[in-house]
Structure to design on (310 residues):
């Protein structure tokens, strides 16, 4: 554990100045931009470097395997899309994006119920139960499927939208007006240590956009309701990067050692890579079923939350 912590310190250290301290801010709340209609003010910045609290030029968002870059109910989702359309893409607005915004306005909803989405789904399997909140659940679920398909079709067809959607979701730059809540560095890592740290700019967001899995799902709240949420998860960038780093390290060792490639050397390298992957998989399994499903690209039917969403 000490070595892992030191590896994070080493990757962050080049970005620090004399006298800087590391401040944790993952549970902080910021001031929202006036045009932001969502109510969730949780920082995108997880930690920051500064000589004093509440002020920094290096504001870091930390992401790992399966990290959620966005989980947004109706107003929050609309705020993100409006920021993309009217701010980031204002010089080249896309009418298809306006259509997507309208779809979320009409298709996102909530149900006051003492049941979870899973319990409602079970009742909905019997035609005799299709009344009241069960019927409302089924209607919303059908809308979810259509909205998810529509969103993903647009997402995959527009690199410009991908870039700005992921940038705002990761940074919160427009949401918090560039303040302390807006992250401007992206640190990717896991329990084995960091993989990369880079300035969080649009081109970096674009690089990760293809690894973001978009879904429209129910969220169950403990206050007696379920609601629609737009989800975006960073799938397995960490695994890909760690494996690539491992293979590059092995290749560099062979080159520097001037070991010629032959069948035995290649098989040994493959065995090491397989052992590396099995070790990573076992660690993911130990984190629970949810993490394993995310790694495999599967989505749970419902998500239960007890706190705020970011």
């Amino acid at each position: 554990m000490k070595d892992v912590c030191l590896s994070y310190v080493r990757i962050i250290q080049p970005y620090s100045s004399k006298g800087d301290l590391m401040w944790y801010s993952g549970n902080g709340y910021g001031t929202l931009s006036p045009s932001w209609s969502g109510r969730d003010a949780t920082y995108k910045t997880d930690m920051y470097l500064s000589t004093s609290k509440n002020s920094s030029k290096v504001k870091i968002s930390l992401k790992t395997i399966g990290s959620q870059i966005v989980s947004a109910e109706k107003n929050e989702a609309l705020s993100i899309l409006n920021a993309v359309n009217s701010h980031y893409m204002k010089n080249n607005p896309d009418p298809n994006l306006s259509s997507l915004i309208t779809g979320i306005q009409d298709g996102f909803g909530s149900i006051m119920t003492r049941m979870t989405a899973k319990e409602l789904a079970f009742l909905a399997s019997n035609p005799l139960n299709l009344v009241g909140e069960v019927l409302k659940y089924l209607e919303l679920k059908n809308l979810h499927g259509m909205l998810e398909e529509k969103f993903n079709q647009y997402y995959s067809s527009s690199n410009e939208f991908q870039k700005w959607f992921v940038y705002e979701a990761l940074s919160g730059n427009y949401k918090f007006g560039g303040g302390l809540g807006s992250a401007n560095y992206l640190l990717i890592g896991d329990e084995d240590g960091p993989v990369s740290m880079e300035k969080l700019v649009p081109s970096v967001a674009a690089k990760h956009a293809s690894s973001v899995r978009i879904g429209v799902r129910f969220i169950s709240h403990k206050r007696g309701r379920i609601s629609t949420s737009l989800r975006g998860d960073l799938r397995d960038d960490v695994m890909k990067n760690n494996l690539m780093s491992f293979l590059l390290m092995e290749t560099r060792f062979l080159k520097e050692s001037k070991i010629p490639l032959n069948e035995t050397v290649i098989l040994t390298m493959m065995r090491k890579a397989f052992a590396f992957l099995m070790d990573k998989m076992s660690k993911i399994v130990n984190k629970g079923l949810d993490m394993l499903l995310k790694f495999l690209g599967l989505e749970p039917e419902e998500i239960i939350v007890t706190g705020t969403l970011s």
